[in-house]
Design a protein that fits this description.
Elements (H helix, E strand, L loop, with lengths): L8 H49 L4 H45 L31 H5 L5 H12 L5 H16 L1 H11 L15 H12 L10 H22 L6 H29 L3 H16 L5 H11 L4 H18 L3 H11 L1 H42 L7 E3 L6 E6 L11 E5 L4 E6 L5 H15 L9 E5 L2 E5 L12 H17 L4 E6 L7 H15 L4 E6 L8 H4 L4 E10 L3 E9 L7 H10 L1
Length: 616
């Protein structure tokens, strides 16, 4: 697999830098070619004009006219080469933008990627506490989607975990395959890139929702149903046959020349009059698609050309090919309809095409055929593109994190969580790794001083589980987990606009936790302090009461606390409650080990640090 080629992010940085430098050199050369092409166009066109002028002065000499035609022919050839060169420049600039952003990622700069802040939900079971969305979040690190549908799909997956080891294996297979398809992924992202800015900012995504809304509006329109019937086609064919017959007869002198002209004019006004409302309705409905459709079609073609082997990617690819030529044919024909509407804006073309070809009638007829054949599949096709978009983003994350490993997800009727060398993915190489095993139905009380690592450890447990249950690599030497529900309570806050105090917000969160646990088969809860918003004695009694109640449910828990009295539950419930801690060493300075060990923390640092502040 291609991502094994790079064992560190430094090696990835070298790879991405080489790609950026190579593309920059190509772009520079192509831009030089562009200057040459423009100069050649001006020269050949000017020479053609000179040749025509000289020919006129020389009594329309044939050899000068031939020279003018030759220059025009050269101009056309050079112009076509110039257009192709411009496309090459645009393509390489898009690729360079993609590689430049990935280079910034491996160097720790996430500013050019979306954080998905709009998906933040303080009421969610775990995403708010686990930093799944927002600046410097998990989503911020993974999202490379080029469609809004893909971004929403990725957010939905990170917020709703898969329900079986088999589902995890299917997604992991697809993610791993895409991780190994570096060129395909980069081309996919470059194809969907809406702004080429050298990676200076977040690119605008293709609006999948706008496509669905516009297509849905188009599909629900009742436009001139008679135009789709066979008898109208027969009438149109007969009208055109009569028109051209009159043209031939007029050319032969059999009928007056005014007769085919009058026929054509009447025919034009009839066609425009009968179809003008339908054309207006179609134009109004599909005009919103112009900005997205061309790029979207190229994405679908890129997916169709891929040689996938994983079951999930092949399933999605086959789904995109179903139904009358599939998504490519459907969106391609819709694009042709849009182009026809654009050409209709030419007044002379409007008259001539309706006079000689009844173009408005056949445009409405083509639209009705597209509406009838393809509308039922559009929603499924957009969903398929969104899924592949999200999987491609995950594949890029897999490729960019060479030190991460695959989790072992087992189907077990209990909570299984066995970690060796576990660490938080946001900390990188500076992270301290910890071993930790969570047994089903048991509770782990974690004590320690401020800043000793309790909260980071809790998030390491949670965020790696989220990754594992999405088929993504985890940040550990080894991680073995089963499928269970996850609920956290670490960042409760008040809501003054709704008159909810901090303590009341905590109670509401604990109620939400209990409801979630009652409806789940197995749950792991992760709590950072219980009832922080009340006095010490009340907090202790309330925490004990809550833990004794929740222990009667099919729940396993990790609870961080500063209240050392809570650790006595291990004595009262031996074998069910366990004490672990993050210890610090107090001397002239404080030493933080960030290593979790069995037992209860002895040293605290608040008074020590406050004395230092007062002394200074």
């Amino acid at each position: 697999m291609a991502n094994k080629k790079y064992s560190t992010k430094d090696e990835l940085a070298v790879f991405y830098q080489a790609k950026v430098d190579g593309l920059s050199a190509e772009i520079k050369q192509l831009k030089k070619n562009n200057v040459m092409y423009v100069t050649s166009e001006l020269l050949t066109f000017g020479l053609a004009i000179v040749a025509v002028v000289v020919s006129c002065m020389d009594g329309f000499a044939a050899h000068w006219l031939m020279a003018a035609l030759a220059m025009l022919a050269v101009y056309v050839v050079v112009r076509r080469a110039d257009v192709k060169n411009g496309r090459r420049i645009d393509r390489r600039m898009r690729l360079r933008t993609v590689y430049d952003k990935e280079l910034r990622y491996v160097r720790g700069d996430l500013s050019c990627f979306s954080g998905g802040s709009r998906h933040k939900d303080p009421q969610h079971a775990f995403t708010f506490d686990m930093d799944v969305f927002g600046h410097d979040s998990l989503y911020n690190r993974i999202d490379r989607t080029v469609t809004t549908g893909g971004g929403d799909m990725l957010a939905a997956w990170l917020g709703s975990l898969l329900q079986s080891g088999g589902e995890v294996a299917l997604r992991r297979e697809a993610v791993d395959e895409l991780a190994g398809m570096e060129k395909w992924r980069t081309d996919f992202m470059a194809t969907g890139l809406r702004t080429v800015d050298g990676g200076a900012g977040k690119a605008e995504k293709i609006d999948s929702g706008e496509i669905l809304r516009a297509v849905g509006e188009v599909g629900g329109m009742r436009i001139a149903p008679k135009a789709g019937r066979r008898w109208t086609l027969a009438v149109a064919a007969a009208a055109l046959a009569c028109f051209f017959a009159l043209v031939v007869l007029a050319a032969c002198g059999v009928v007056p020349a005014t007769l085919p002209v009058m026929w054509g004019v009447v025919q034009m006004f009839v066609v425009i009059g009968l179809n003008s409302k339908s054309i207006h309705d179609i134009s109004r409905a599909v005009e919103k698609l112009h900005a997205n459709l061309h790029v979207y079609i190229n994405l679908i073609r890129h997916i169709g050309d891929a040689d996938f082997s994983s079951a999930e990617l092949k399933r999605l690819q086959v789904k995109l090919a179903e139904g009358g030529g599939g998504a490519t044919a459907s969106f391609g024909r819709l694009s042709e309809i849009l182009n026809s509407l654009d050409r209709r804006g030419n007044f002379i073309g409007l008259i001539l095409f309706n006079m000689f070809a009844l173009s408005d009638y056949f445009l409405v007829r083509r639209f009705l055929k597209w509406q009838r054949e393809y509308m039922p599949q559009i929603g499924e096709w957009v969903d398929c593109v969104s899924r592949i978009d999200a999987l491609a983003a995950m594949g890029t994350f897999r490729f960019n994190e060479p030190k991460a490993v695959e989790a072992d997800v087992v189907d077990a009727d209990k909570v299984v969580y066995e970690a060796k060398g576990l660490y938080h993915p946001f900390l990188g190489d500076k992270a301290v790794r910890n071993d930790f095993t969570i047994a089903d139905g048991e509770y782990y009380i974690i004590t320690g001083a401020n800043m000793a690592g309790k909260s980071t450890f809790l998030r390491s447990v949670g965020v790696n589980y989220i990754l594992a249950m999405n088929g993504l690599p985890v940040f550990a030497e080894r991680l073995r987990v089963s499928v269970f529900n996850l609920f956290t309570s670490m960042r409760t806050s008040d809501d003054l606009s709704r008159g909810i105090s901090y303590f009341n917000a905590e109670l509401l969160r604990l109620r939400q936790l209990l409801e979630s646990c009652r409806h789940a088969h197995r749950t792991l809860i992760i709590l950072d302090e219980i009832l922080k918003g009340t006095n010490s004695l009340d907090k202790l009694n309330g925490s004990r009461l809550f833990l004794e109640a929740v222990a009667k449910l099919p729940v396993t828990g990790i609870i961080a606390t500063h209240d050392l009295e809570l650790s006595k539950m291990e004595d009262e419930h031996p074998g069910r409650f366990h004490n672990w801690c993050f210890e610090i060493e107090l001397a002239d300075n404080i030493t933080y080990t960030y290593k979790i060990t069995p037992g209860v923390a002895r040293n605290q640092n608040a008074t020590f640090l406050l004395k230092g502040i007062l002394k200074s």
